[in-house]
Specification:
Strand content: under 5%
CATH class of the largest domain: Mainly Alpha
CATH superfamily of the largest domain: GntR ligand-binding domain-like
CATH topology of the largest domain: Four Helix Bundle (Hemerythrin (Met), subunit A)
Order of helices and strands: HHHEEHHHHHH
Length: 224
Amino acid sequence: MVVRRLETGRDRLVDAAREEIRAAILSGRLQPGTPLSVPALAGQLGISRTPVRDALMRLLSEGLVQEVRRKGIVVAAFDRRELYELNDVRAALEPLAARHAATMLDEQSLAQLHELLEAHGRAATSDDLERYIDADLSFHGFIGQVSGNRRLAQLLGLLQTQTRLAMRAAASVSGRMPIAHQEHVAIFTALAKGDADAAATAMHDHIINARDVVAGPPEGDQPR
């Protein structure tokens, strides 16, 4: 047999545990740095320890939890270097998505993107951080989806989970949200014109600006 027979009952428990813990992390119910005890989680979820342990291993591969010496597995916390590196990766990938999207957007997609832009503008003037993060990720995610490059869209989708945590970690930076919205307007304007170069540049500048504001130069050796 080339592949093993799936243990469907156990797999369902692992998936359910992963989704519940994942939701608690993404919603902020489990804060960055919080130790994740397998026995405690198993007790709260009403299941055995094995599927909880497997669920944590999956979350580890997603970057939502980290292994810390002498603490075990904890909810992922972003320091300045990690914030810098995450946005560095985004700055390499998202301009490519914007470049492709500029040539792929039809009238319907452009109208949808404009609705997301307006929602982002409203969220940027609110005091609701989660609403703002949702609106921001929806705008960026849509551009990835309409880029026409499925592999690129998948990679960006994987990054969005970590980006959500990073945005929450950087929430103390005041005044950034209205500025970010104006940068989104510049991205949308370039996309609406079908200007691939301008769209890529606007996206790159937007992410680099966010990187430098929330992270500054990384501690230690700065990437060159």
